[in-house]
């Protein structure tokens, strides 16, 4: 099974429960995990902005990584793009990797902090 098919299956249940495009996109983002921290990128706070055009099926996403020297900086935006592109109703995805403001632990959700034993 390809990574793309695995991603589709991994978030199929969550996506089915989400009635709007934003909910389906967030469900897809929660299937993508940081390669160094066992938490999904959405709850880790790596997603800075999510702009949706439902009529055009377009998603623009601004995100960062936990560190600028992250070894997957070149390939990870493509992984995120593929996950979002698999969402029903999405035809076009643009992922922009940004470094300002720098990521900090303050951006993490309570669920992520709990999962990492920080709460």
UniProtKB/TrEMBL annotation:
Coiled-coil regions listed: none
Record domain MIP18 family-like: where: 24-96
Identification of the protein by name: Mrp protein
């Amino acid at each position: 099974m390809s990574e793309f098919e695995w991603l589709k299956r991994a978030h199929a249940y969550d996506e089915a429960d989400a009635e709007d495009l934003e909910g389906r996109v967030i469900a897809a983002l929660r299937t993508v995990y940081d390669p160094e921290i066992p938490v999904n990128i959405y709850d880790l706070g790596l997603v800075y902005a999510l702009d949706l055009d439902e009529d055009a099926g377009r998603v623009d996403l601004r995100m960062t990584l936990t560190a600028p020297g992250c070894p997957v900086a070149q390939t990870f935006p493509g992984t995120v793009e593929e996950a979002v592109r698999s969402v029903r109703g999405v035809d076009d995805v643009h992922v922009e990797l940004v470094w300002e403001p720098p990521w900090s632990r303050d951006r993490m959700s309570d669920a992520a902090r709990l999962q990492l034993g920080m709460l």
